[in-house]
Amino acid sequence: MRKQTAMNRDWIATARTLSQALPYLQRYEGAIVVVKFGGHAMGDDEAMETFARDIVLMRQVGVNPVIVHGGGPMINEMLEKLDIKSEFVNGKRVTDEATVEVVEMVLSGRVNKRIVQAISSQGGKGVGLSGKDANLMVCDPTDPALGLVGTPAECDTTILHAMFKADIIPVIAPLGMGRNGETFNVNGDTAAGAIAAALKADRLLLLTDVAGVKNAEGEVMTDLTAAQIREMTADGTIAGGMIPKTETALMALEGGVRAAVILDGRAPNATLLELFTEHGAGSIIRKG
Ligand SMILES: Nc1ncnc2c1ncn2[C@@H]1O[C@H](COP(=O)(O)OP(=O)(O)O)[C@@H](O)[C@H]1O
Ligand SMILES: CC(=O)N[C@@H](CCC(=O)OP(=O)(O)O)C(=O)O
């Protein structure tokens, strides 16, 4: 006689979950999803491993993920070691020649390779590059007062499409090339938004260290419009590091991205829950 075992029941539960996920898996087949992985979202080795596993799984089910990373806390650590002072104006690091050298060394070197390695360990093909490679992100100076901080002006995404075809997951450090050969330091959120817009991505996921955008009562707002963001920024509910994030989301939508989501990158399976479940995760911002 056939008996219902615990293992069978587990299997049935898995099959149910899979069948629920199926429409979402189909919806994202071939989709481009740009994921901004911030320095605060990176956490410890275990969090990095979970993140990489989710990104590789995304690729295995037919999504084209693009990772744009930050690494502000890691840059701070190195600048401190080298005794170089650093300050932020409106969420952007004032960057001189000495600082940009450290930024490039830390982001394109240590942080970028750590992510690439984590992806390889999970069976994916991660390839690291920065906005300086293959004209990916040509920048203009943002503001003379900020020094070598750049605003992306032209993004050539040819290299990214070639990588999608080759089953490669691009891992991009937010540095850009100036028109006179300078190296520019670009805020990670800004870089992710510009690349997402240039790719006309289906989703821009901004991973951070809070569950989403909170209202004045401290509750996470699951759906947000541009008008609500403008109102909440004007009355101070959206402040600090959340300002560049929501601004990036709005600019990406203007640039043709279908939706942007702000979510907690340290939460287990955050990116998969956002894409492949009905409720998603974090705050979704759509046009209109
Ligand atoms: N309305 C808001 N909802 C959520 N977080 C907010 C809000 N306003 C300000 N913040 C702050 O923004 C921070 C996220 O920005 P930031 O620290 O720059 O992130 P990251 O380093 O991941 O790019 C949150 O940790 C929170 O302290
Ligand atoms: C111009 C500017 O501020 N660039 C950032 C680049 C790194 C970054 O954005 O890192 P997070 O995403 O971890 O904050 C910086 O120098 O810190």
Can you walk through the features of this model?
Residues 32-263 form the Aspartate/glutamate/uridylate kinase domain. Its EC number is 2.7.2.8. InterPro entries: AceGlu_kinase-like_sf, AcgluKinase_fam, ArgB, Asp/Glu/Uridylate_kinase, Glu/AcGlu_kinase, NAGK-C. Pathway: Amino-acid biosynthesis; L-arginine biosynthesis; N(2)-acetyl-L-ornithine from L-glutamate: step 2/4. It catalyses: N-acetyl-L-glutamate + ATP = N-acetyl-L-glutamyl 5-phosphate + ADP. By secondary structure, the chain is an alpha/beta fold. It has a single domain (21-286), classed as 3-Layer(aba) Sandwich (Carbamate kinase), CATH 3.40.1160. Helices cover 44% and strands 21% of the residues. It is built from ten helices and 14 strands. It has helices at residues 6-27, 39-42, 45-60, 72-81, 97-121, 158-165, 188-199, 226-234, 242-254, 270-276; strands at residues 32-37, 64-69, 88-89, 92-93, 126-130, 138-141, 150-154, 169-173, 175-178, 183-185, 203-208, 223-224, 259-264, 283-286. The strands form three sheets. It has an eight-stranded mixed β-sheet, with helices on both faces. A four-stranded mixed β-sheet has the order 7-6-9-10. Strand 6 and strand 7 form a beta hairpin. It starts with 5 loop residues before the first helix and ends with a strand. The model has no long low-confidence stretch (mean pLDDT 93). Residues 38-41, 70, 72, 208-210, 213-214, 237-242 line the site of adenosine-5'-diphosphate.
In short:
The chain is of the alpha/beta class and 288 residues long. The chain has helices spanning 6-27, 39-42, 45-60, 72-81, 97-121, 158-165, 188-199, 226-234, 242-254, 270-276, and strands at residues 32-37, 64-69, 88-89, 92-93, 126-130, 138-141, 150-154, 169-173, 175-178, 183-185, 203-208, 223-224, 259-264, 283-286.
